[in-house]
Design goal:
Elements: H1 13-30, E1 55-60, H2 75-79, E2 97-100, E3 107-110, E4 115-118, H3 122-125, E5 131-138, H4 144-153, H5 163-171, E6 181-184, E7 209-211, H6 215-222, H7 228-249, H8 253-276, H9 283-288, H10 296-313, E8 318-321, H11 343-367, E9 374-379, E10 383-384, E11 387-389, E12 396-397, E13 401-406, E14 414-416, E15 418-419, E16 426-428, E17 431-432, H12 433-443, E18 453-455, E19 458-460
Parallel strand pairs: 1-8, 1-9, 5-14, 5-17, 6-7, 6-8
Antiparallel strand pairs: 2-11, 3-4, 5-13, 9-13, 10-12, 15-16, 18-19
Length: 475
């Protein structure tokens, strides 16, 4: 250590502790923290095997869609309407258990596959032969925030990386000008908060970047305050200081992530305005997504879906869409599919919002030859009970519910698993959230058991120690 003139070279006890105390902590921390991150944001690691999908679009139906009113018809509910459930009823969120409640909507079979879809989704029904419906999903969470964390991270609480973060950690991004993991946040954040999109213990470069599809709001967040030359000089200075700090401190994932984030933010200043400029899209394409709908929520969600396509075209690895709040319930935040009462009104409003845009996304991806390499996921955090809550609502049901996937290497026009005759419990091929993400990673060319990160003395992974690839749904 260099000694200033006029000072003693002898270290006092106080001075030694003040200068070295952080080093003691670093020694202990080193046993818990991993070395340099294994994947860079752009480029990433090579897949473990040939991928079927290059990117993921996750249409998250926050609040919990009723499977017995959408993709899992149960005639027995009609025959036994109003009767008490003949099987044991598990504890519910509000302990207001009514009689068996039939669906207000009729079901019909569609396409060559004959997949059953209710009247709620007339546009998605036209895409039945593209869908791979899993009717036997199960969750550990029976409360929104807990279940939202579980379906996003594989853990029912804060602090673990989101599936999008794991994906970019494993594969990086094919885009140099946009983040690898983007959340289109017109609908705000689901219950549980931004942590469901977080990087957890992964390097910070892998957390989600929020993009608000309303053009002016998004551009206001990204327009620089300084001229380009001034801003470039500031970023270069920050990079130089960070790199100097990294050399002094040794390899530090936080510093490396900060450097990458500054550079990505700089590049986004030109990439995002171009992304949001839809003038090059035809009127027919916009109409396909429902952007000309008189329903403002349909038009807004249609814009999200179109931007999702444009994002994956530009190499973004993982895109998640959020639902807008119900206009009839302005105080509702984060869970617009959550109809404990007025099921018919609430589900009708939400289906009107997402049905045409999502069907348009599937058709547009198909027409452009992109669906084969883009995996689209449609899911809520749980389903809903086959019995009524109060007079006309349904409570949460994590014991058996439906989701669907399309493109990206899954079997089209295929139904996997089943619930019992009441739609209450998964009775055939129960499929966990762990299995879902193990399968998604597999389709992306990643062995889910090898995608790990050392934290707290343990090799952590998205599928935890439970997941298995559902090979029966893979084409």
């Amino acid at each position: 250590m260099p000694v200033r003139p006029g000072t003693s070279s002898r270290l006092s006890r106080r001075r030694m502790l003040s200068q070295c105390s952080t080093g003691f902590g670093s020694v202990a921390l080193a046993s818990l923290m991993p070395p340099a991150p294994a994947a860079q944001l752009v480029g990433g690691n090579r897949p473990n095997f040939a991928p079927r999908a290059k990117s993921v679009i996750f249409c998250f139906m926050s609040g919990g869609v009723s499977h017995v009113d959408s993709f899992d018809p149960k005639p027995r509910l009609e025959r036994e309407a109003g009767n008490p459930m003949p099987v044991e009823v598990r504890p519910t969120m509000f302990d207001d258990v009514g009689g068996i409640m039939p669906s207000p909507w009729q079901f019909s079979q569609f396409g060559r596959s004959g997949i059953w879809v209710s009247e709620l989704f007339p546009h998605m029904a036209t895409c039945a032969d593209k869908l791979c419906v899993i009717r036997s999903m199960v969750s550990k969470g029976n409360e929104h925030a807990q279940a939202n964390y579980f379906i996003h991270t594989g853990h029912p609480f804060l602090g673990h990386p989101s599936a999008g973060a794991w994906t970019t950690y494993g594969l990086g991004s094919e885009s140099e000008n946009l983040p690898g993991f983007v959340v289109l946040a017109s609908g705000g954040v689901p219950l549980g908060g931004v942590g469901i999109y977080g990087n957890g213990y992964l390097p910070a470069a892998h957390q989600a970047s929020f993009l608000y599809p309303e053009e002016e709001e998004a551009l206001n967040n990204i327009r620089p305050a300084d001229p380009d030359g001034v801003q470039r000089g500031k970023i270069d200075l920050i990079r130089a200081l960070d790199e100097h700090g990294a050399k002094e401190a040794g390899t530090d994932p936080a510093i490396e992530a900060a450097i990458r984030n500054y550079e990505t933010a700089y590049m986004m200043q030109s990439a995002v305005p171009e992304l949001l400029d839809l003038s090059g899209e035809t009127r027919a394409t916009k109409a396909l997504y429902g952007m000309d709908s008189p329903n403002p929520e349909t038009a807004a969600y249609g814009r999200e879906c179109l931007l999702a396509r444009r994002l994956v075209e530009r190499g973004v690895r993982f895109v998640e869409l959020t639902c807008l709040m119900r206009p009839a319930v302005p105080g509702q935040v984060g869970n617009p599919w959550d109809q404990h009462g007025e099921l018919r009104e609430g589900h009708s409003e939400m289906a009107m919002q997402v049905d045409q845009p999502i069907a348009g996304l599937l058709k547009d991806l198909t027409a452009r030859g992109m669906l084969e390499e883009t995996l689209v996921i449609w899911a809520g955090e749980f389903g809903r009970t086959p019995f009524a809550q109060g007079d006309d609502g349904r409570d949460h049901n994590p014991f058996g519910f439906s989701i669907w996937l399309a493109g990206g290497g899954v079997k089209p026009g295929f139904v996997y698993g089943a619930t019992d005759e009441y739609g209450y419990h998964a009775s055939e091929n129960p499929t966990s959230v762990y299995d879902l993400w193990a399968t998604v990673l597999h389709l992306l060319g990643i062995d889910h058991e090898k995608l790990t990160y050392r934290f707290g003395g343990r090799d952590m992974r998205l599928s935890d120690v439970f997941g298995s690839v559902v090979r029966d749904i893979c084409a």
